[in-house]
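Predict structure. Chain length: 503.
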Amino acid sequence: MVSQTSQVTTYAAYLLRATLTAEQRRGRTAFRKSQGLDVEPSKSFADFLGQVTLESAANFFADLTKGRTVHLIVSIYSCTAHVVAFSTPHERIGAWELNVEFTRKERQTMFSIKSLLGRTSPIIFESISAILALLVASASSVLLGCQSQKAAAPPPPAVVEVVSVVQKDIPIYGEWVATLDGYVNAQIQPQVTGYIVNQTYKEGSFVRKGQTLFQIDTRPFQALLDQARAQLAQAEAQSGKTQLDVERDTPLAKERAIAQSQLDNDIQANLAAKASVKAAEAQVEQAQLNVDFTHVTSLVDGIAGIAQVQIGNLISPTTVLTSVSQVNPIKAYFPISEQEYMHYAARINAHNQQVVPSDAPPFDLILADGTVYPRRGTLLLTDRQVDVTTGSIRLVCAFPNPNNILRPGQFGRVRAAGETRVGALLVPQRAVTELQGSYQIAVVEGDSKVAIRPIKVGERVGTMWIIEGGVKPGELVVVEGLQKVRDGSPVKIKQSNPAMKGS
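Prediction complete.
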């Protein structure tokens, strides 16, 4: 569809523009000079087609007087010109633009006549000879150039780089996103209420089990301990007195010098005094524990975190002072899909009572910077349930961490070879072309011609791709120069030996 606009669209080739002036609307056939082109209406249209005269061409384009926009398509092929005209309705307006685009060799040349806005008088009929003369001038230049051009020689075969399809046993690696966490994470909380008077560890350092991390003011607890000891002494004194009473009154009661009831009272008072001694001893032990609890210690060997309190803060048993994580070994948690779990469920459940499954593959840990951790991990356990929100189940493996390089909260990727594909066919990934969900590969056959074949792809292994159908071992596939080949085109091959990274 031709848009009604006052601007001429610029094409990739030569553009000629002729605008009919007000003088032409008065019946004149002169053209205004546009972009350095002078067109004489006396030029013969027969110079262009060889048999058609200017008058017959004018009759051929008589439709222009009926208020239509006419598109002329001139095809130049083997130095022969063919003209096709078709018209579309438009408003009867009085000014027109003629856009001409042409190139040499086997390409179409488009002539477009369209109206300008704001004109009202018809002029095409008045100036048909001038328009045809412009077509003569432009197309003649194409023919002259075409006649002087010689037939081009066929291009030489494209040079492409090829590799052979490799067949070998290859391990199939799975890779999952993992989160690291301490083997044991101990929250350090006080067991008594008091004021922090000292912090005795360096934050982020390695601490030993039993090492004091914080010191709470001991004076109130020491006073309670002294009080409990005093009460114990009183209870022991009372117990000694009642014991003497029993010893004195026992022979007197046998001689009936005193009533038997008095001896009974002495015996029960002695038992009560002994019980009071035990209660006082327990109070002393509790007071001693409280004094000991003023020394807040680490529960495990590990890395101590940043302190959550400052010296002088009043703390209670609900206050978290810091955390200590055992990081050697360190755990890596990673989820696998339910489908992957079902694939390996028999192997997982066959050894679920073992600390480390005997046939579990070793795990590699790929860190955030892309490096591979030098020590390999082992599978520890599988979670008891599938997460209903994600459809995955968590697995846990442990990695040795003697230098404390790995820390809780780090992200990485764990990789393991779950199975081995026997006799797999491998090609470089760059040799495979994906097109709308299907995959193709360019194979150089025995006659040095390319055959584009559809293939079925499998897993990716490093820079290689497992091909499950479409190629045979030893066939040559194109890896460089794919954009230069077509199905059946001859090529000149250049052998390449790609490295199988990650395999």
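Summary: The longest strand covers residues 166-188.
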